[in-house]
Design a protein that fits this description.
The chain is an alpha+beta fold. It has seven helices and ten strands. The strands form three sheets. It has a four-stranded antiparallel β-sheet, with no helix packed on it. A four-stranded antiparallel β-sheet has the order 6-5-9-10, covered by helices on one side. The radius of gyration is 19 Å and the shape is globular. The two termini are 36 Å apart. The model has no long low-confidence stretch (mean pLDDT 95).
Length: 286
């Protein structure tokens, strides 16, 4: 059994459980209805919170039975202040969870029962996300493929919402890459189209390796099942970079800052291991 895959899954399930519990407890049915969500939406947010708790308990039981100590929940802070901003955030965080299950599945192939359990959770997570997106008035299935994530990238994306943890996972924390613009509309309509400028910020002093200040930088764009797309950045000042949205990109993508280009293209695993200067940043396109 690969303990690391299950511990990361549990770490993310704790995060999602806290998110959905807040989305249920912090708003009333009337508040959801006033923002255009269908009747019963808040109750279903509560059902999703229950599902996340069941997922977390199931993974904890598997780890305990195998002799491992399950990672405990952290304390979290989520930047939402309305039902709509909550659902927008839930779409982003659930997309990270879906990506992590997709990325970790290959490490469970030697244990068919664990692979089946993880796959069963993954399909339910996808149903959660489709329901949320439909509630926003967005497409419940914006792409033909979802985007997988390495453990390092999924873990780093979760750190945006973690205040304090009694126990962190043994995975590296990478320098931050922040998407500044554009901000997608609340219902994700119209989609952010190819060629639209994306503006990112980062702190060069936080890079874990030294680089030639004159060396070109690139954004590696991770989306669906295609290879990573590399685009040279245009500088908008120190710690500021822009690129156009690559052709064919849609749904939810993830961007990392790197010195590697398309000719020396790294896989997502290689980017996570040694090729990332900052990131990932989540980019919701549609």
């Amino acid at each position: 059994m690969d303990e690391s895959v299950l511990q990361l899954a549990l770490y993310l399930e704790h995060l999602e459980g806290a998110l959905y519990t807040g989305g249920y407890e912090n708003f009333t049915d009337q508040q959801y209805n006033e923002e255009g969500f269908p009747p019963g939406f808040r109750e279903n947010v509560g059902v999703i919170a229950q599902h996340e708790g069941i997922h977390a308990q199931t993974i904890s039981d598997i780890l305990t039975k195998a002799g491992y100590t399950p990672v405990p929940p952290c304390s979290y802070k989520f930047p939402y202040n309305s039902p709509t901003s909550f659902v927008d955030l839930a779409n982003m965080i659930t997309s990270v969870g879906i990506g992590a299950y997709l990325g970790g599945g290959s490490m469970l192939t030697d244990n068919p029962s664990l692979l089946t359990a993880a796959s069963s959770i993954l399909t339910v997570e996808a149903r959660h996300d489709s329901y949320l997106r439909a509630g926003l008035g967005a497409s419940p299935f914006p792409t033909a493929f979802d985007t997988s994530l390495t453990a390092v990238f999924a873990y780093n994306l979760a750190q945006m919402f973690v205040v304090q943890c009694p126990q962190q996972l043994p995975l590296p924390i990478l320098p931050k890459l922040t998407l500044e613009a554009p901000i997608p509309p609340p219902n994700l309509q119209p989609p952010i189209s190819a060629g639209t400028p994306l503006k990112f910020t980062y702190d060069p002093s936080k890079f874990l390796v030294e680089i030639d200040p004159k060396a070109p930088l690139y954004i590696g764009f991770i989306n669906q099942v295609t290879n990573v797309t590399y685009t040279v950045v245009s500088s908008c000042g120190t710690g500021c970079a822009t690129i156009p949205v690559p052709e064919g990109a849609a749904g939810v993508a993830f961007a990392v800052l790197t010195t590697f280009d398309g000719q020396n293209a790294l896989t997502e695993d290689q980017l996570a291991q040694f090729g990332t200067l900052a990131g990932p940043a989540e980019v919701v396109l549609s």
